[in-house]
Structure formats: structure tokens, C-alpha cells
């Protein structure tokens, strides 16, 4: 069983982290999970079986307080889904929660989040004659997905509205779980077990002292191209080969959703530019080349939260973005590794199996070939 995060396993990685090394190091952010494990692999007999390995992740950008925050996004490769993007592109605002789940559960998660927003006044209502109209306003929950069909009975549509509410109720600040949790439960990464991961960076005071937090749902990449610190570990590691009894997709078929949060006062176009640095972190681990992957990114700032109702906002000059770009790339790379290090072996539908990274074998390789990165 893997018990360590990447740094805790004895590796040296650049950059100063926040106290939790998580997206929740950006003040106000809460993350919650509902992890769904139903039945045993032998219970799977086809779509609709009493078997599931899936879940829901919810990110509340300002906790339970309604918010309209500046947002930007970018697709490295668009084979996937992220709801609410048209309004984000036009307005530059993020109105409400973010959730990540499996491909076939986007609809129910989106609708349940909209209902939760209405029931909890988590929106900006229309105003008539000076009075807000209850339940009438903007409801644009943002829901992303990656496909967990090799582990999960994804065509069984096992995620329910109650699961979404459970994930919201679970949302909290502070340290958060990683690996086989929430929407990342049934995911693979570089043909090892993947899932949910997070990391953060705190900039030097000379650079503003801002915090950058990242959350990923990692379900992408190939073993052939997997590398750490420039070492082709996917080719050098032995054993722990994925077992695919149902079918074997084209290598690299998969997706990654990456969410970046910061307390830097940046505008939507700057957040879009921050998103464009996410692929640097993905590429350092040997992914980002695949046409059949959905590599979809979003970034938001937790400051200027009153900008939706006011005409003035605080702005950071483009000349000061370089440290944020660097922090983003570093945190993305580490968040993916944290997802893989926290993940555990899983047997899914049709007795398909993904193994966790063999950490002792990996440690031996990196200690020999990349000693400067090992404690």
C-alpha cells in the first residue's frame, strides 16, 4: 500500500509549498469527495451491474459563500467535457462550484449542483423593482470529466444526486485525500493507477508572496513515455503491467482535468495564460502528445470577488506573471505525482487491473540515476 506523497517519499522538488501542499492552501477553497465502491469485480456482468468504481469531487472556490470570481481556461486537447465554458469565455466569471466526475455522470452532477445553488442562495439573482427574485439568476456549475470505463461500470450510471450532496457536505479546507478518491477513484495514469492529486506553491515575498494551488484528476499518459526528472522510468520499471481483459484502448487514450487557484489579483486573460502553462507540468512527466486525450484546464483567482457587482478591480501587471507561471507548472507536475503515489492497486470491471507505482523499485532507479533529486 502506498502511504506517501511524492516529497514524503524522499524526493527533492523545486519550489516552496503551502502548509498542506494542496489547492486548499489558497484561502477559502474547500474540497469534498464522494467515493463510490459498489460490489466485487466478479459482480460485473455488463452495464447496469451491481458494481462501480467511481465518484465525485467538488471544489467550492469560496466555501459556502456565493462567489463570482475571475476565471480563464485552456484546452490542450479537447476530447472531453467541461460545462459552463461559454459564459466563462464571454464574461470572465466563474459562478459557483466546480465538480469532476466520470464521463457519463456529468449531467446529473451538473443538475444537482444547480439545485444546490438555488436551495442555498449560492448565486446572483435577477433584481426586479429593487428586489432580488428568488431562484432566478445565473446557474452555471462547472463540471469536468475523465473516462473511468476500464475500472468502472460507467454505462451503469451509478452516480446519484445524493452522491453529489455527499461530496458537497464533505468539502473542507486543510489537507485532503488523494489517489483513489472522489472522481479520481477509477482513473489510471501512465498505465499505472492514477486519480486525484493536489499541490501548491507559495511565491517569494519579492514576487508578491502569492499562493498557487493545483488540483488534478489524472487519467492520462502512457507508460512508454512516462518519465520523472527526465529519466524514462516507464521503460525502466519492470512488472506491474496493466491487465486489460475487456479491451485495450489506443495508448494515451485518457484525460486530465487540472484546476488552478490563486490569490494573485489576475484578470481573465491572465488566468487563461496561466492555464497555458499547465501543459509544461504534464509534459515534464512525458504526456501531452495524444490526440485521444481530453486535457482541459481552468484557473481562477479568489480575490476581486466583488468585481461582478463593482466597476473597479485590482490588477497585477503582466510583467509579474513569470513566477506564477513557474509555480503553476511545478505544482501541476507534483500534483500528478501525488495522485500516482497515493493511488492503490485496483481491480475493476471484467477483472481489468491497474497497479500502483512500484515505489521501492522506483526509489532504486531514481537514487541511482538521479541522486541529486533524492534525500
Automatic annotation (TrEMBL):
Short name of any one Pfam family annotated for the protein: Peptidase_S58
Record-linked InterPro entries: ArgJ-like_dom_sf, Peptidase_S58_DmpA
Any one Gene Ontology molecular-function term assigned to this protein's record: aminopeptidase activity
Highest taxon listed in the record's lineage: Bacteria
Protein family per UniProt: Belongs to the peptidase S58 family.
PANTHER family: BLR5678 PROTEIN, D-AMINOPEPTIDASE
Name of this chain's protein: Aminopeptidase
